[in-house]
Each structure stands twice: as structure tokens, then as C-alpha cells.
Design a protein that fits this description.
This protein is α/β, with parallel strands linked by helices. The chain is built from 17 helices and 14 strands. A hairpin with a 2-residue loop joins strand 3 (57-62) and strand 4. The mean pLDDT is 94.
Length: 421
């Protein structure tokens, strides 16, 4: 088949040779399919990644995966420039798709992925013109996320318009893929399902979570090892966090926890390794200095290729969020959950989630409260745990990761594609 994958932010995947749609494309190509990934010329943070010049799109390859880069304007933050960036990608996606189809032929199916909904709207409209099916992949529930972060009010004119647009997407997509197992509960909450008198059939809804390329993780763990004395020092109990340093990730809670453990006799070997960048990084670095938190290492940005080795040398990995920043009842689709599982180490989550993967695979623990006291208590429990018991929990994580390897996830994607073609 000819499959087009559309994701505004897949430019990051081109750069990293990794990520959901890069791995889907790799797997589909290996199975004999003709695949193209459409993405923006800018990265997720809005920086220009590729200069298309006067062209509205340009074709490049990463490994054996081809990409069409659709011209967009640079953007920083979440203001008007971000909106313009999204709008320009939406507008230029139509001529980019038309030009590519003219040269290489019409695809058999389009898979259009959020985060923002304009990509899915474009995917549906382009598919209609080509008389082919469009599968819409919802990786984040917009506009619910906008409402939960206070960016707009649900009852406002803007809020009602966004909900109407969301409903249009769900109604007109030939199939829907949700990355959280419980996201179809949202359709029931809106009373949009046919069983409730609505117009969205749950039979066209599918669940394919984010996942991990286990073979790539193993290879990188062997060959991509950063020169970092903190992760090879076997005398420490390393509590590791890898991810964005921003309010929703609640990383300041880790520093509060480190302060408690520093003042608790017998836990001098517990050390926090925090990798990542974000708008709170400098603030937290300053806290480490002013509060004399010598059991914390703020590592800053780390190249993704080093992450598997870093996680493999951890004692326990932190899935760190604020409980009140998001609706966790429908599950979790964070990439790092599956990278953590692949590392074969126990996981501590600071939030209790619905449809819990951690509970299902018995590969860690979820806290009832996201307080530093509760987290410190759990870290101490893992520190004092019999090593064999801790290793067994890590083995459970590794075994569970096999269900989220992209070989298995691509089987599911092929099944969804076959259901509409």
C-alpha cells in the first residue's frame, strides 16, 4: 500500500531518527509498503529546521524514511506566532500533497495525527478530494487540554467552536486511533456515541499507545554511552528523571524530595539525576545551588541517543507529574513511560492513573499523593528493598515493554488500515 503519515511535528523525528511516526514508517517500509511522512519545516519548539526557500514543500530522507517538509513560519512560545505556524502548515499541506501525488501517485490511505487538530482536518479534506480513507490519530484531546490549562473556557464562543470542530473530525474520520486506552470514555462523556443517540460509532475507534523501538534501545545502550561519571558510579542509588522541565512535570517536587532525603540519616547514597530542558531549568538549577542540594545533579539537555544507557544505569526511574494539572483517569501515553519500561528498571509515578500500565505489569508504583513526603517514603522503600525483589519489578517492566514495541504496534496500525481500505 501507499501510506501517507501526517504529523506537524515529525520534523523532530527526522532529526532524531526516532519517534512514533518514524518508527511506524520504518516498520511499514520493511513490510513492503510505500510510505511518506508529511511534517513542518520547523521543530516542536518553533525553530526553523529546514529552509524550503521559495518552495512550499521539499522532500528529504532520514535513513530509508522519506519526509515531505511543508513550509511554515518560525514560532516561539504559545502566542500568535504559534497559531500562525499551525495555520501556515495547514494551508501549505494541500499544495504539498497535491504536488507529491502528481509525481508519485495517490496514496491508499492517509493517517493524520494531532497534537493540534488542523492536521486532521487537512487530512480528511485531502483524502476526500482523492477519494481515499483518512484515519485520524488523537494523541492529545484538544480542546480539553486547552480548557484544563486555562487557555480558554469551555462555555466561551471559542470553546464551543473548538468542541464543534473536534466533533466534526471524529464524525468524518473513517477510523480513529487514540493513544490512551480510556480516551473513548471522553466520547461517552460528550454523549457522542451511536449507542447514546450520537453519530460516532465506537467500532471505528482503536487504541494504539505510544511505544518504544526495543531493538534500537538495545543497540544504543551498547554503542551510545555518554561520558558521565554520575551514571557509572555504582556506589549510588540513582533516582533518574528524563523529560521536559516545565510546570506540568512538577520537577520542583523532586528537589523538595531530595531535601528531605538529604536530612534523613542512612540515605546519603540516594542521588537524583535530572535530565532535560525547559522553561523551569534555570530556576531549578538556582535552587540546587542556594539550597545546597548536593544530592541532585541538574544535567540539562541530553541527546536522545544516550537515554537508553542512562536509564539502564538507574536504580529507579521517575514518571513525575502534578496530579492536578491533567485528567489522568483515561491513562497515560507518555513516551518516557515506555522508555523507562524498556530500561528494565522499576518506575515510580507521582500520579495514580486510570487504565494503569504500571499496575497491569507490576513494574512500579503510583502514588496516592504527589507530595515530597510521599515520594521520599517510596524512594526509601525501594532503596531498602531486597535487590532481588527490585530486580524482579524491573524485569516485569522490560517484559511489559514488548507489548509496546513498534513491531507489535505496527501490527495494530496495519489492522486499522485494513479495516478502512
Amino acid at each position: 500500500m501507499k501510506v501517507w503519515l501526517m504529523n506537524h511535528y515529525a520534523s523532530n523525528m527526522f532529526r532524531d531518527n526516532a519517534g512514533r511516526h518514524y518508527w511506524f514508517a520504518e516498520q511499514l517500509i520493511a513490510r513492503g509498503n510505500d510510505v511518506m511522512v508529511f511534517c513542518a519545516t520547523t521543530l516542536l519548539d518553533g525553530e526553523v529546521f529546514l529552509n524550503a526557500g521559495k518552495e512550499k514543500s521539499i522532500v528529504k530522507e532520514a535513513g530509508n524514511v522519506p519526509f515531505v517538509f511543508v513550509k511554515t513560519v518560525p514560532s516561539k512560545g504559545n502566542g500568535i506566532k504559534r497559531v500562525l505556524n499551525m495555520g501556515m502548515f495547514f494551508m501549505n499541506l494541500f499544495p504539498a500533497a497535491k504536488a507529491y501525488a502528481k509525481e508519485h501517485g495517490t496514496p491508499d490511505v492517509i493517517v493524520a495525527s494531532s497534537v493540534h487538530p488542523l492536521t486532521m482536518i487537512a487530512g480528511i479534506k485531502i483524502a476526500r478530494k482523492m477519494r481515499i480513507p483518512c484515519i485520524c490519530e488523537i494523541r492529545d484531546l484538544w480542546p480539553e487540554a486547552i480548557f484544563s490549562f486555562g487557555k480558554a473556557k469551555e462555555k466561551s464562543l471559542l470553546g464551543r467552536m473548538l468542541i464543534k470542530g473536534e466533533h466534526w473530525i471524529y464524525k468524518h474520520a473513517d477510523a480513529l486511533i487514540f493513544t490512551k486506552e480510556g480516551d473513548t470514555d471522553y466520547l461517552k462523556e460528550r454523549r457522542w456515541t451511536t449507542a447514546q443517540g450520537g453519530d460516532i460509532d465506537l467500532a471505528k475507534c482503536h487504541y494504539i499507545n505510544n511505544g518504544v523501538d526495543l531493538a534500537a534501545c538495545e543497540e544504543r545502550c551498547r554503542t551510545m554511552q555518554p561520558e558521565d561519571p554520575d551514571i557509572v558510579d555504582g556506589s549510588k542509588f540513582n533516582v533518574t528523571y528524563v523529560g521536559t522541565i516545565r510546570p506540568v512535570n512538577h520537577v520542583g517536587n523532586l528537589l523538595d524530595t531530595a531535601k528531605i532525603l538529604k536530612e534523613t540519616p542512612g540515605y546519603e547514597d540516594v542521588r537524583f539525576l535530572i535530565y532535560g530542558d525547559g522553561n523551569q531549568l534555570e530556576e531549578l538549577k538556582e535552587r540546587v545551588v542556594t539550597e545546597h542540594l548536593d544530592n541532585v545533579r541538574m544535567k540539562g539537555y541530553v541527546n536522545r541517543k544516550f537515554v537508553p544507557f542512562i536509564l539502564s544505569r538507574s536504580s529507579v526511574n521517575m514518571l513525575n507529574y502534578a496530579q492536578n494539572q491533567y485528567n489522568w483517569s483515561r491513562g497515560n501515553s507518555s513516551n518516557k513511560l515506555f522508555e523507562y519500561m524498556a530500561s528494565g528498571k522499576p518506575i515510580i509515578s507521582t500520579v495514580r492513573m486510570g487504565y494503569s500500565i504500571i499496575k497491569r505489569y507490576d513494574c512500579g508504583v503510583e502514588l496516592e499523593e504527589d507530595t515530597p513526603q510521599a515520594l521520599a517514603k517510596e524512594i526509601m522503600r525501594f532503596r531498602d528493598m531486597d535487590p532481588e525483589e527490585r530486580e524482579k519489578i524491573g524485569q516485569n517492566a522490560r517484559e511489559g515493554a514488548k507489548d509496546f514495541d513498534f513491531t507489535a504496534l505496527t501490527d495494530k496500525l496495519v489492522s486499522v488500515i485494513e479495516s478502512v481500505t
